Amino acid sequence: MEESQAPAPVEIPGDTMRQRSAWKWLQEVIVALAISIFIIVFLYQPVKVEGTSMMPGLADQERIFINKYVYRFVAIERGDLVVFRYPVDPGKNFIKRVVGVPGDRVEIFRGAVFVNGNRLQEPYVPEKFRDERSMSEVVVPEGNYFVLGDHRDLSSDSRDFGVVGRAAIFGKAVFAYWPAKMMGKLQ
Asked: How is residue 39 annotated by DSSP?
């Protein structure tokens, strides 16, 4: 009697290749999503600018990324665009430019900002956005920052609500991504 052999399974090379390709694609998507979630949760956060107090550098409804981690390693510096909890209503977030760091003497005379007796050069504030407000000299206390909006005649800032505590600052604005024409590193 002859032993019958079972026919060998027929492999369809295309199906196996498609399955492997689909599995590899799915793995890459999962890894990319995990990395994206890590970056957004721990490092960068997308935010929407609301209001015109930072024009022309930042427009109303513009989308930006803030770095939530940078100030754990480096000091906040004059000129940084910081995002912080509004001192009057901590449920709101504001974005402003740091003009005074701890120990600085800040004075404003007819719209001109003086820090430690020297006029601050502010190329980010166009002439048409300047105002004529004056403010007596204040010394920025330790652990606090003096912040101003770039659109001075429309900005609610340290001239109105005082200095901002370090604990309220939770990020540095670093990159604009929408609208596309505004895309780029923030100055």
From this structure: I
